[in-house]
Amino acid sequence: MEAANRRYADPPGGTLPERAAGSPVTLIGYWDGAEAPGWPSVTGFVDERWDQTERDLVASYLEQGHIPWVQAGLSPCRICGKPNGSAERTDGVYLWPGGLAHYVREHDVRPPVSVIRHIVSAGATPHPRRVDGMDPGQVDRDWWRTATLDS
Predict the structure, then answer these.
(1) 19 contact partners, CB below 8 Å, separation of at least 6
(2) Which residue has the higher pLDDT, 106 or 36?
């Protein structure tokens, strides 16, 4: 089977990652740009052969995450320039910009394998765990800076 058509679900009976009280959520989906140097390049995550069914499930999941806070101003899409939201979303394990679903749907941007595995295992709807009172200081930003499609 070609890598682009792989399904990344955990085996049946696997458990979802869960954030322990006080532990950080992991940031994903931020891209390098003039105002945000040091993040991964979005073009390194484009996978035009990614399975459409899985892509739709991932985009839908990303659109439904809990909104812990909203930033001032809109972020532009790094590919098409379209205004791409100002909210962040979370499921209690990952934290992503609200516009990440746009990248997935419109530009074939595929998150790393570990993120897809988590989303596919969770099903169609995120079930936030311990996100009330989430502190922006409790966000792990380091993993994303070195993430790849195979992470």
Answers:
(1) 25, 92, 93, 129, 130
(2) 106
